Amino acid sequence: MKKTFLIPALTVALLMAGCSKDDDNNTQKEDNNSSTTAAHAYLINQGNWGGNNAELSYFDPATGNMTNNYFASQNNRKLGDLAQDILQYGSQLFVTVSGSGTIEIIDPMSGKCKKTIEMGTRYPRSMAAANGKIYVSCYYPQPSVIRIDTATYEIEATCTLGEVNPEGLCIAGDNIYVCNSYAMTADGGYIYDSTLSVVNLSTFTETGKIVVGVNPNFVKVLSNGKLAVGYYGDYYLAPAGVAVVTLADNSVNQTEVSVADMDVYGGNIYVLGLVYAADYSSSHAEAYKIDGTTMEKTAILTSSLSDMTTPNAITINATNGDIYISDAQNYSANGDLYGFRQDGSLRWKAETTMLPTHICFIK
Hints:
Largest sheet: 5 strands, antiparallel
Strand content: over 45%
Number of domains: 1
Helix content: under 10%
CATH class: Mainly Beta
CATH topology: Methylamine Dehydrogenase, Chain H
CATH architecture: 7 Propeller
CATH superfamily: YVTN repeat-like/Quinoprotein amine dehydrogenase
Radius of gyration: 19 Å
Mean pLDDT: 90
Structural class: mainly beta
Number of strands: 30
């Protein structure tokens, strides 16, 4: 019997260290014919824990032309330690840098930093935005979501949650939905949650919880009135999977699948996962398109994933449905980003820097 298993990106980063090469504009182009309308995009390279080597790559989604170390080149300084999430809101780009305890506010047209918000020891993770506010999940000093005013860049309110670390969050209707994932015990063990916190936007208080699956990390708006949630499981007995939440009655429909990362497009859920043998002696990557209504799973990119070393992130271009897979190259060298069409054919492959993860397409 095979088991599904995933080491969270933070844990991997703690365990792994490596080197990177300075190699900009290194792109293997397969096809330049694209209907992508986004003129450019940014890719987060998370970097290694304690390595102070997080970076941004700037690229053209149509051609794969990649410029690495872009933040450093535009700002004459490093981005910091462990870039975690990236979000465009209005005319600004926001990047959380967890290890450095900062949020960088960047002009998406020039790549130049406009302001750095110092977060202290909060350890900022994921972001969502609405009504002139940025909402950020934070680990410390206690699990919470903070609210930042985009006019003043000040932290204006905090909503405390439970006892476990919050991860992904999204906004639907009048609420923020926040993944409650895990907490470490004093003896080095783990406690796993299985819920989404429901936080009212107006009162900025937690009003309830929805049980979705053990160790949820990703939540996105799937369609009107529905959320998609990806959960890791406990890496042993509780399986990983995907849940669809119908907000009208908070009903949950689940399917078991290995989850390393997740995105949504056209009412479907796209999942990338690592599947390990029963004794963890070997592993392989799998990717699926899951129908958000029927939960039917269709394998995608099967032959392409077998050629990659450590696929770790998936992003869908909402403009045309192109699929992007990040390959972390065993977390010890420069990674690669692959751009695929919806039919699975390769558009291009480009080298990145250390541990490529999330993408933001500039509007």
